[in-house]
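I am writing to request your help with a piece of structural work I have in hand. The matter concerns a single protein, recorded as an amino acid sequence and a row of backbone structure tokens. Could you please explain, in whatever detail you think fit, how the structure tokens follow from the sequence? Thank you for your consideration; the sequence and its tokens are set out here:
>
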Amino acid sequence: MKTSVAVVAYNNVELVKEVIESVKLNTSNDYELIIVDNHSLDSRTRDYIRSEKDCVLLDPGKNLGCHNGFSYAFERAQGENFVKLDDDTVIKTKDWDRMLIETIEAWDKIAFIAPDSNVRHGSNVATHQFNSLHFDRITGGTLGFSCVMIPRKTYLEFGPLTSMNWKNGALQNTLYGGEELYYAQIAHAKGRVFGYCMNARVEHLGNEHRDIDYVLWKYIYGYLGWTTKPLDDFKKDRELLIKGYTFWVTSSGNDWLAGQGRKALKEMGYE
């Protein structure tokens, strides 16, 4: 088996459906689709993934968070190449997996590779191009991990996905964030390269489709570490909500999210 595609499903049932259908439509026959039940608060998501056919359903018994959920899947995967596919990222190119595999097999120094995407990290700059591959050779550069193919041998060499703080590079125990930075740092230290395969493409549907409180919770829980409260408790914490929305309005750099933040603050009585 060439490819194990892992999706960690948490809430967001409509997007999860799109993601799973895009995998089935566009991936070659030599693959397995692994869905990790990350114990959604939305029962519709859990009902949906449990009804899915032709996939491997894994239930760890609790919410493991993002990177731990994918590592849980990879440790049980059968493929030669692992794919981390976020539950809001849709495959847009037929035979995308073959394109990524052929690129990996052609270059010994490639640690991992991603399809081209509508969303990239700001630190990604293509400094070298060969045919369909853009390499990222910048010290400290990263690669977007919303969809990434990691050869089994790389995973065994680098170890499980681990969350890393974007500001200071420290390892941290959070639900989300920083696994792409962690893997990039290891690759740079080992003199390995990674890049985007420009012939294959995915679309990151993004947080615009989600409950804005969920977006905010995910960010300040995972990336900023301001709270360890579960989502339901977080929504009831007015002080934390105000602090979080104020952060979005002033610092996010995302016009849509900032607009949603201003709207939410106004509804809570803050102009």
Observations:
- The radius of gyration is 18 Å.
- The chain has ten helices and ten strands.
